[in-house]
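Figure S7 source data.
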Amino acid sequence: MAAPTMDAVVALCKRRGLIFPASEIYGGIANTYDYGHYGVLLKNNVIAQWWKAMIQERDDIVALDSAIIQHPRTWEASGHLAGFTDPLVDCKVCKQRFRADHIPELPCPRKPSVHPGEGPECDLTEAREFNLMFQTTIGPVQEAGATAYLRPETAQGIFLDFKQTLQYARKKPPFGIAQVGKSFRNEITPGNFIFRTLEFEQMEMEFFVPPDQAAQWYDYWRRARLDWYVSLGIDRERLRLRDHEPDELSHYSSATADVEYLYPIGWSELEGVANRGDFDLTQHAQFSGDKLEYFDPETRERYIPHVIEPAAGVGRTMLALLCDAYDEDEIGGEKRTVLRLHPAMAPVKVAVLPLLRKDGHPERAREIYEELRRHVSAEYDEGGHIGKRYRRQDEIGTPLAVTVDHQTLEDGTVTLRDRDTLAQDRVSADGLVQRVLELTR
Ligand code: GAP
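Tokens for the predicted glycyl-adenosine-5'-phosphate complex:
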């Protein structure tokens, strides 16, 4: 089918409890979402695949989980305090705030047919630079000197621990440090569901390399990261690499490429791969007075490694997976919504359904379910008409459904239904675990 609308994806996520607005009983809070049961399972799968690609399948990257609140000097050194800003304008009439550079694409809240500033009553202020970091206070008293910040990227924790990691990890450049965790940005731009949120999970890896290898590793990671999304089952045609123009580059970057996905809002950033050079280690060395360099005992050379950084977002990966997998078709004249997720990403791999709620079906189905759940994420469901139960599983992307019926009790076979082909194979309940494992890898 043609690409779904964002509204269709948002509605499915809410209906099936994957993702829904946070604080809804209080009217919600802009650009903030909660993840329900299936959303959590999908999120866990995304993160697990990332760790697999970064750690399990390589031996040149180590893991880290650094603090969200770091020493405030961190953000002076990183340049975030001075430079991590958006130009904002306020409307004195409607009291709304806009990003100055986005005004040509935004509707005026009072008169949506024109842009902010063009309505008869609009009264916009001059643009002012607004820092995106959330401030907080350490200790019980809100006094100068105790101001701290929620991290706007996980990367800085990695730079702060570079020396520590070098000492225990027995690695030498080229090697990487990877971490997954929440970051926070005071975004005022409309979020487009989970595309842009105030808090979001990042999956970032800083790859430290000898300076003369930076260009080659930058090229390597640009391509490796795009391939990773293809491995999650995302359509290659809806992915592309886009190199930043010189005027788009962040203050720390000499080259950046975005892995972009064709979301319902158009081609947009899924992940950024940046050549950060020696900017961060040099800055933290200068601000902390510590030496952040590598001494190569073989060549007797001392140098500050350069850094190649693939920085991905869990939310944006989930949104790409959901948009890519969303499909609608018709079964027996009835409309069906289905998430054609790669089995490895599906929140639930197999559903076990007794045909009837009597005649020994539930008991046998439960036994099969208990066996399957020891190996894969499985779900038991006996509520409602069988067709309705299949539809429920289709909507959360469950690739397989096992149905227990009269024949099961006679000859030990069950039906195994395929979400995509709708084929229902009659198979022996013995060996089901192996079969499900093979089909959902
Ligand atoms: N350390 C580099 C860095 O943070 P970034 O391009 O600002 O670079 C990396 O962020 C990734 O984090 C983005 O590609 C996106 O997937 C995710 N991300 C950034 N801001 C986000 C937001 N407000 N909401 C959701 N995801 C966000």
